[in-house]
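Re: export button greyed out
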Amino acid sequence: MDRIRITGGQRLNGVIPISGAKNAALPLMIASLLTDETLTLTNVPRLSDVSALSRILSNHGVDRSVAGKRIGQSAETGQTVALTARQIVDTCAPYDLVSTMRASFWVIAPILARMGEAKVSLPGGCAIGTRPVDLLLMALERLGATITIEGGYALARAPKGLKGAEIVFPKVTVGGTHTALMAAVLADGTTVIENAAREPEVVDLAACLDKMGAKIEGAGTSRIIIQGVSRLGGAHHAVLPDRIETGTYAMAVAMTGGDVLLEGARADLLQAGLDVLSQAGVDISETNEGIRVRRNGAALEPVDVTTDPFPGFPTDLQAQLMALMTMAKGTSRIRETIFENRFMHVQELARLGAKIRLDGDAAYVDGVEKLTGAPVMATDLRASVSLVIGGLVAEGETMINRVYHLDRGFEALETKLGRCGAQIERISG
Ligand code: UD1
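Workaround output, generated via the alternate export path:
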């Protein structure tokens, strides 16, 4: 298994190109199952989650072609991927493929909508608390599907097709909203989704579905209305920039000090996160090319932050913010309200010398003078990158094990940070 070695203490200066969003690319790729025509996606990040989903889609019969590299393109430039599901040859998504990535469960919606049946293994994914799929299945049932659970699989059937209906989510769920959208676009009649997720990735999926011929109103608000159509066609769509990658590098620069342009980043996708950084004393400015992040010597102020669905502070940046606040002048409070058990990075940050107390859903972070390098291990995607942020300022060497978590969600991480001056290298294992 690969490891990443960081020698802390370097400021970051330069330009970091922001990749296409993993959490948008995955549902967009899944949407290719809704049509027999070609869906061409640009700005698709090179991530192991994207490759894993490609394998799942190919098992269902999706042909995939990736445009070759053009002169002047670097390995971090997003790929152009053409996906064609001329025929769905298999309506079953098996355990060995689905268990590694939770989002792959979402294939249940387009396969059911197009084929009248789907059998999908119940998901695995990050070890951040129980992450049930009851609300996703509820949405499909509301649209007229019959659901049974057998041998670790969810079986969904709607032999006469899905019917538009009202779907009211009792809590905001991104995956539930994606699932409801992809099922409702081919349902007969009108569907209204209440308490829909407002995340930018939902808006991006709806925009792509619209280009494919769907009729969707209200994406980005908590009420989405879908007029079902009988078929969808092909489209071209660019994946939106990754707001979590943006926030992560912004926090890395805040941690080390320096001056970095996050190229292609969009502030409107991450206002809550950027506001927190401004409160902490980091200089954030929007430019034509992206977001510029600067900190020059000034102390970091502690913050009081609660994670919330969009437009609130994202749970996917909670671990990174906690790493940053380990070096603030005072005590920060960080509350996690989306996932229980999403504090596994606390123990590992403590190995670098962080002082963090947990109390229910809150973490109290007492800023320390310095962190010290240590071997650490990560249990999930965002937790592992919080250890990178810690390692960038820790005295001496930090060795991060289980790098495969980082490869799931961060394209060319060590190259991007290394070019800005970080001493970071991958050690192949
Ligand atoms: C997506 C993101 C993930 C992010 C999360 C919250 C992708 C690929 N992943 O995950 O990075 O952290 O949104 O912003 O886009 N829940 C239920 N029943 C369900 C579904 C969800 O109880 O059927 C609960 C979950 O346990 C959690 C909350 O609802 O407590 C929100 O989960 P959800 O928004 O569905 O997260 P994901 O779509 O899995």
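The chain has 14 helices and 24 strands. The button fix ships in the next patch.
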